[in-house]
Specification:
The protein is an alpha/beta fold. About 45% of the residues lie in helices and about 15% in strands.
């Protein structure tokens, strides 16, 4: 909508091509690239191909994830490896390659989509929590060491966000108790939507955030600033 050229990648070719077709039909300048983010070679190759075709990269958004919601005793080497490779390793080498390209321009933006799970513990797998924590520290590292090239690096840590494809289920009558619990935990009394994350991305990508570097912006409605005991007593009081 801002007129940018958007290039996105995925290892699901059918879904990627479908998404590309839908957005092109709406008049957006968008391109899908099929690739496996667990391969460092493919990550670097994609970035080089984009620079060769478009002569620059202005913003890199690391948003991919791989994770199965399993508990501590179920975590295995396969899930660990896939989660770290896709969520953390690819983000590092994509960012490293982006810096090599962006420093020629004298400016650029790297945005890492982390999670509140990078700082707090929830129901996601151990590998997911650890990958997101690593992404937050990686954000700070790049902010310092890529900053000298005019490149800003920040992270966004979404909290309780209902993605577009889950809204219908979330709002269904059968889901009322789950929804009430989620919203009662929130200071604002509402759950987040994908658009809340989008607007944070637009801000941190823009010149309005030209002096914001190395920050983690929590888009969670204030959920994580609360004392857990305070939240628990809210529910005890209702019972």
């Amino acid at each position: 909508e801002k007129g940018d050229k958007v290039i996105f990648c995925d290892n699901n070719q059918e879904q990627g091509e479908k998404t590309e077709k839908e957005f092109l039909a709406c008049g957006f300048d968008i391109q899908f690239m099929y690739m496996d983010l667990s391969s460092v070679a493919q990550c670097i190759k994609m970035m080089i191909e984009i620079e060769k075709k478009h002569e620059r990269i202005d913003v890199l958004i690391n948003n991919a994830r791989y994770s199965r919601k399993i508990d501590l005793l179920e975590e295995d080497e396969i899930n660990w490896g896939n989660t770290i490779d896709v969520s953390l390793k690819s983000s590092f080498f994509l960012s490293q390659t982006a810096v090599k390209i962006m420093k020629k321009q004298g400016k650029g933006v790297i945005l890492n989509i982390a999670s509140v799970s990078g700082s707090f513990i929830g129901a996601e797998s151990a590998s997911y929590h650890i990958a997101k924590a690593g992404m937050i520290q990686m954000t700070r590292y790049f902010a310092v060491h890529a900053g000298k090239f005019g490149i800003r690096t920040n992270a966004i840590a979404p909290g309780f966000i209902i993605q577009d494809e889950h809204i219908e289920k979330y709002l269904s009558p059968n889901n009322m108790r789950y929804r009430e619990i989620g919203e009662e935990c929130q200071p604002l009394g509402i759950s987040g939507r994908a658009d809340n994350v989008v607007k944070a991305v637009l801000y941190l990508s823009s010149d309005d955030a030209s002096f914001v570097n190395g920050e983690v912006l929590y888009v969670d409605g204030g959920l994580t600033i609360q004392d857990p005991a305070y939240i628990a007593f809210k529910f005890v009081g209702k019972n």
